[in-house]
């Protein structure tokens, strides 16, 4: 089947980390505290993996982790067309794109306790496996305390105190709402690091754009291309590392 003819999806992974995806036309938001090597996406183009490391939040909430590296490993389709010949680590501020397919990976980053943490936004082929396709495959899926919480139920991944006014003011000022606002408040209060607020707002804007970019109706006439047309398009595709 044609890769171009397949719909694309948007996926964002970052913060504690939090996974957002519109796979299957359903908006999902999951906070995943698995550590080690996480498979974010495995499809006919490439495998995208991230390393998640546990951190010790300042507010005493257990289970927090951050993304510290991201690696793209090409499949034969990219290798044979000279678009990506070997595995590549993508650092903060870099972008990997396959223009013919309108697919891309964008990485942002910040600093926490002497470590770099990453936030990645992707537009990728709709067919594949990994957390971007099934965030519920996360083993350590946890709830995040709501900004509207009036009681403290305690337990894993819930703060020992209610959110401070400073935390709520900083996150609400970004315009974030719902699950994304809760995640911003948790990340900020649990780490006392403003970079989590800045990146939460930036990643939210990038994810909103990625959802638009993943709209299959934008593919136009190329959506009817056959597999041979895909190979020809890949051969002429531009690979950019900005």
Order of helices and strands: EEEEEEHEEEEEHHHHE
Radius of gyration: 18 Å
Helix-strand makeup class = alpha+beta
The N- to C-terminal Cα distance equals 31 Å
Strand order of the largest sheet: 11-3-2-1-10-9-8-12
Count, helices: 5
Mean of residue pLDDT? 82
Strand content: 25-35%
Number-wise, the strands total: 12
Shape: globular
Largest sheet: 8 strands, antiparallel
Structural write-up:
The protein has 242 residues and is of the alpha+beta class. Helix content is 23%, strand content 31%. The chain contains 5 helices and 12 strands. It has an 8-stranded antiparallel β-sheet with strand order 11-3-2-1-10-9-8-12, covered by helices on one side. It has a 4-stranded antiparallel β-sheet with strand order 4-5-6-7. α2 crosses α3 (178-191) and α3 packs antiparallel against α4. The longest helix has 19 residues, at 195-213.
Summarize the structure.
With 242 residues, the chain is of the alpha+beta class. It has five helices and twelve strands. The longest helix is centred in the C-terminal third of the chain and has 19 residues, at 195-213.
Q: What would the keywords be for this entry?
A:
single chain; 242 residues; alpha+beta; 8-stranded antiparallel β-sheet; 4-stranded antiparallel β-sheet; 5 helices; globular
């Amino acid at each position: 089947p044609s890769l171009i003819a397949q719909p694309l999806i948007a996926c964002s992974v970052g913060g504690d980390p939090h996974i957002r995806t519109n796979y299957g036309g359903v908006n999902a938001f999951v906070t995943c505290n698995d550590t080690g090597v996480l498979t974010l996406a495995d499809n006919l183009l490439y495998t995208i993996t991230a390393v998640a490391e546990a951190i010790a939040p300042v507010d005493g909430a257990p289970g927090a982790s951050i993304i510290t590296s991201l690696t793209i490993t090409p499949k034969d389709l990219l290798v044979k067309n000279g678009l990506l010949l070997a595995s590549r680590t993508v650092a903060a501020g870099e972008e990997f794109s396959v223009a013919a397919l309108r697919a891309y990976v964008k990485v942002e980053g910040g600093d926490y306790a002497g470590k770099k943490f990453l936030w990645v936004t992707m537009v990728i082929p709709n067919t594949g496996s990994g957390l971007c396709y099934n965030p519920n495959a996360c083993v350590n899926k946890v709830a995040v305390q709501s900004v509207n919480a009036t009681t403290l139920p305690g337990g894993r991944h819930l703060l020992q105190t209610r959110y401070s006014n400073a935390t709520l003011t900083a996150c609400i000022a970004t315009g974030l709402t719902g699950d994304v606002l809760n995640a911003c408040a948790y990340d900020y209060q649990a780490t006392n690091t403003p970079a989590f607020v800045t990146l939460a707002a930036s990643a939210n804007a990038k994810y909103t754009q990625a959802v638009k970019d993943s709209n299959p109706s934008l593919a136009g006439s190329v959506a009817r291309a056959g597999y041979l047309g895909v190979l020809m398009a890949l051969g002429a595709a531009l690979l950019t590392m900005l």
